[in-house]
Amino acid sequence: MNLVRAELERLCARRFVQLMVVLLVFAFAITAATTLAGSHKPTVSELNSARQQAVEARRSMETTHQECLARQKERSPADTSEYFADCANLDPIRQDRLPIAADFLPGVFSFAEQAESLLYFLIAFLVLFGFLVGASYIGADLNSGGVVNLLLWRPRRLTVLAAKLGTLLGSMLVLSLLASVAYLATFWVIGQSAGLPGRLDDDFWSSLGAVHGRGLVLVLLASAVGFAIATLGRHTSAALGAVAAYAVVWELGGRLVLEIIDVRRSDQLMLSSYIGAWLSGESRFFDPRLCAGTSGTGYCSGLYSLTWAPALLVLVVLTGGLTVAAFAVFRRRDLV
Amino acid sequence: MSAVIEIEGLRKTFHSLRSGRRVAVDGFDLLVEAGQVHGFLGPNGSGKTTTLRALLGLVRADSGRMTVLGEPSPELLPRVAAQVGAIVESPQFFGNFTGHRTLRLLARAGGVPVSRVDEVLDLVGLHDRGDDRVKAYSLGMKQRLAVASALLKDPRLLILDEPANGLDPAGIREMRDLMRSLAANGVTVLVSSHILGEIQLICDHVTIISRGRRVAAGPVDEVLAGYDRHEYLVRVAEPERAVELLHAADLPAAVDGEALVVSGVSDPTMVSRVLGEQGLWVGELTPLRPDLESVFLELTGAYEHPSVPRQVDDSSLPHDEAVIDLDRGVGA
After folding, report:
1. In which band, very low, low, confident or very high, does the pLDDT at B172 lie, cut at 50, 70 and 90?
2. C-alpha–C-alpha distance, residues B24 and B138, integer Å
3. Domain chopping of chain A, boundaries
4. What is the mean pLDDT of residues A198-221?
5. What predicted TM-score, i.e. pTM, was given to this entire model?
6. B3-225 adopts what CATH topology?
7. What ipTM score was computed for the predicted complex, to two decimals?
8. Helix, strand, coil shares, percent, chain B, to 5
């Protein structure tokens, strides 16, 4: 416990951590201020007009769907053109969301409509924060001799490293929770006072809660990955270099090569796909190669999806593997 | 006396792609007994710091047996870690932390009362600078802070690697007094240093390492005595004539500047008598005792190429028969 308390104090006292917190608050303040400045409470006539436009938009969608169904009934059986392909895609009931009044209120912030995208922004920042702080926390300590100092006091390598990792993850969890609650509460207040709260029903909160929960897990995984790579490479820069190299070599170069050699479902081989799938619950990818064998036999969307469960498995295995490797290497490493 | 540190046959090899395999410590032995202030000497790259790091579990030894306060190290080192204060090389501290905060964090991590921080800052002369950031400290002040960190635990065994690094003469003297006072209070001290005069002043025992092997060990006086050639510096009016007279009396002598050096003198009155009987009156008769520096340089081979810059790995390889171990006997 003493070790964790000491590590917590060291972590909080680090200039880099303090700088990142200031940046977080700054980005938060800028976002809130610009949102507040660009929003106003809608008048009754604006609301009525927006509601009317939303009703018309929904009616238009229904009309388009009905027209499609009518054309489908009239077509000859031999006609397989895509124009008649699948009216179900136009069915309003099957849309992710239908037009609502808030869509027709320019300059009015709607909390219900924008909370999720705002939360994604916060999660992206916290993921970056966690990765950089995780890497620098152990990287700087290994490089400066801080770990050696600590081991002279507590010559239990795994305990010391686990205390550092545990402190990092615990701190990141608390910071992320506090930041996200403060962040969402601020925008909720803006919605109430200078915009629209929107429809804040159970579906909204459960959906936002799911994104929030998945985001927190991603922040912790990113922190652990930064910590593990910096431990393996003994430097903060090892983690930054590894991620930059992965992004350039695999996500960009590898993707290009896979395209050239016609590999099917190449997005499944990219870590970014799993991050997206985990965060959003499901990611859909388009691959025309999937339709190569179905020509002439019917409609093929060329879409495939990744869901959160396999995405979580991949992310956990990767993070777990790196962390176990970091502990195994640190246990035997010569600290010179 | 009970052994506080025991090292037997320690061997450590480093491997790297660039420089290949390098034996840093090659079957090294060390014995430090309770209450000793034990000097640990060796040229740069001889294996001192690697030995201390291995002893403290910071590097993994290839082979050998080590114990600290009776516990096998590094396996059971945690059992006695609370009684061992150590600094290895010049420890680096976070520049943005104050000296006080640096020690407070270590105290907290080690379960030491935070009140001890002020005591050790006072002990190493940093009491008034404890609230300054470490980055504002001079090299000597950082070294004092490092020693303070080693003293925090109120240790039974203190291991100090080059504690005088960066200290001014007054600081070196204070460090010497500190070690003496710790030793007087029953703390066993193992100190490695390049400042041989200091080691000779504060240490009662010494171990000298060269190229990873022990070349001398034992009480300082006895190690020095092993290299005493019983030489005397003699000043007389006619040095050349004096040399002839001494040769005639079976006393090897040679002119050295304006004086002469006589070797193998068991009784210095012989010199006075031989020269006085021939009317040459001795103006000065000074014994030339070996000091630790001359013994160190001789044992580690640093005298071999006076006109060529010596490289860090140029120290001599010890021969088994040449090893002096006054605790265990010559050649042990």
Report:
1. confident
2. 31
3. 2-42+105-332, 43-104
4. 94
5. 0.81
6. Rossmann fold (3.40.50)
7. 0.77
8. 35, 25, 40
